[in-house]
């Protein structure tokens, strides 16, 4: 697996630090320059150590006392950057400015490399008016000192953050300005911590939210003389488009789920249909090896349809479905309408439980007020067949045979299949 140990040694000679991580984000190997750049890992890092532990040591020496309570968020964000990083960025650690790159390995895992950035010292003109060039930048722009306090900002920066025209901005920090925009808004402390963390990374964009659903993207560049240069852009429209896209995707997902549910639901009774019944019965057989099936048919239903019409027949089917569903759920089972006046119940633990469910169904059907459906319908009865088996097709055939036997022996009864 690359990089081999000799490659680590070679990179040492080029003043490049390296650390390899496997597909589970665990340390594999590193070179001496890595420990020079990050001395906090000496004597602690080991093969197999999770990258999160590596980051936790890193942040324990970087965060101040007010930030340490949020260290786990910093660690989680660092792991995410590790897995998603596409472009190099700079940051300062132990007084050394380093550029870090991350490369995904062909067989999983990532390699991170660091090299020191040595910029030639360049003194800025001693006269502030040279900063007037910032007003020629279309985006918001500002210059900050080593303490992240404003030295100067252009007019667009003030507009982006609603800075009053008479406010002396020198000496303020970006987090002060954003906190002021929110006034007494929630989680100001956490917001300040996120801004401080974002300003740490050289060239890595981060986003800040303002009241009224406005958003800004910030890029910070550190210079060797202690000054930093920030560029601020209004990304409100793109964030709105992203949100609308997410909402559209969610709506599409919900509609697809609704359509999928419709495809598995009987429109007349609201019960699972034959497709869902077959899927669930197959799943039960796959998991348990055996299943109990209760087949149910409304007796003389054709006569009800012929005499009172299909609308009354539909009411009978709906009422029967509700009764069967209630009895099935009471036993922890599932009822389904599998076609016409035919229903089924699956999920009974054993034949004895199925017998009890069948008794409950007969009793509930017998006590129902069928004259409420039509004054001339005094009663409705069901024939029930029960079978147990290990194969889907054979189980269905066996339950049907038991059902036909119940019909043949006078209806309004339950029969078990006996091989």
What would you note in describing this structure?
The radius of gyration is 36 Å and the shape is elongated. The protein is of the alpha+beta class and 419 residues long. Mean pLDDT is 88; it is low at 122-130. Helix 3 crosses helix 4 (71-84) and helix 10 runs antiparallel to helix 11 (310-330). The protein is built from 13 helices and 16 strands. It folds into three domains: 5-116, Beta-Lactamase; 128-239, PAS domain (Beta-Lactamase, 2-Layer Sandwich); 274-416, Alpha-Beta Plaits (2-Layer Sandwich), CATH 3.30.70. Helices cover 41% and strands 22% of the residues. The strands form three sheets. It has a six-stranded antiparallel beta sheet. A five-stranded antiparallel beta sheet has the order 7-6-11-10-9, sandwiched between helices. Strand 10 and strand 11 form a beta hairpin.
Summarize the helices and strands and which ones pair or pack:
Blueprint: H1 5-13, E1 16-21, E2 27-30, H2 32-37, H3 51-60, H4 71-84, E3 89-93, E4 96-104, E5 110-116, E6 140-144, E7 150-153, H5 155-160, H6 174-182, H7 188-200, E8 201-202, E9 206-210, E10 214-222, E11 228-234, H8 236-263, H9 274-288, E12 291-298, H10 301-308, H11 310-330, E13 334-339, E14 342-346, H12 351-367, E15 382-389, H13 392-408, E16 414-416
Parallel strand pairs: 15-16
Antiparallel strand pairs: 1-2, 1-5, 3-4, 3-8, 4-5, 6-7, 6-11, 9-10, 10-11, 12-14, 12-15, 13-14
Helix pairs in contact: 3-4, 6-7, 10-11, 11-12
């Amino acid at each position: 697996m690359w990089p081999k140990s000799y490659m680590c040694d070679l990179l040492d000679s080029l003043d490049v630090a390296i650390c390899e991580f496997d597909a589970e984000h665990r340390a594999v190997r590193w070179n001496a320059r890595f420990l020079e750049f990050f001395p906090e890992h000496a004597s602690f890092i080991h093969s197999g150590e999770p990258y999160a532990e590596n980051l936790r040591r890193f942040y324990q020496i970087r965060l101040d006392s007010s930030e340490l309570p949020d260290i786990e968020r910093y660690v989680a964000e660092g792991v995410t950057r590790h897995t998603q990083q596409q472009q190099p960025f700079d940051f300062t650690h132990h007084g050394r400015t380093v550029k870090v790159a991350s490369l995904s390995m062909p067989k999983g895992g990532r390699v991170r490399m660091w090299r020191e950035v040595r910029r030639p010292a360049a003194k800025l003109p001693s006269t502030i008016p040279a900063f007037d060039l910032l007003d020629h930048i279309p985006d918001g722009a500002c210059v900050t000192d080593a303490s992240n306090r404003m030295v100067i900002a252009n007019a667009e920066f003030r507009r982006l953050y609603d800075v009053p025209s008479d406010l002396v901005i020198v000496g303020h920090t970006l987090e002060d300005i954003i906190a002021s925009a929110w006034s007494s808004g929630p989680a100001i402390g956490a917001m300040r911590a996120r801004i401080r963390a974002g300003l740490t990374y050289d060239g890595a964009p981060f986003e800040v939210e303002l009241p009224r659903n406005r958003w800004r993207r910030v890029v910070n560049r550190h210079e060797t003389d202690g000054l930093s240069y920030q560029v601020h852009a209004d990304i409100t429209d793109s964030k709105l488009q992203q949100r609308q896209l997410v909402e559209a995707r969610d709506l599409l997902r919900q509609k697809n789920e609704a359509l999928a549910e419709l495809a598995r639901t009987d429109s007349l009774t609201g019960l699972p249909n034959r497709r869902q019944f077959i899927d669930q019965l197959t799943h039960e057989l796959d998991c348990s090896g055996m299943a109990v099936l209760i087949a149910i048919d409304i007796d003389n239903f054709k006569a009800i349809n012929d005499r009172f019409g299909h609308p009354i027949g539909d009411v009978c089917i709906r009422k029967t479905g509700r009764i069967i569903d209630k009895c099935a759920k009471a036993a922890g089972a599932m009822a389904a309408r599998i076609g016409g006046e035919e229903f089924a119940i699956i999920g009974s633990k054993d034949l004895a439980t199925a017998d009890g469910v069948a008794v409950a169904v007969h009793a509930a059907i017998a006590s129902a007020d069928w004259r409420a459906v039509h004054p001339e319908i005094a009663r409705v009865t069901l024939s029930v067949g029960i079978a147990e088996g290990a194969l889907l097709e054979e189980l269905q055939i066996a339950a049907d045979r038991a059902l036909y036997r119940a019909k043949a022996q006078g209806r309004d009864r339950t029969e078990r299949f006996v091989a």
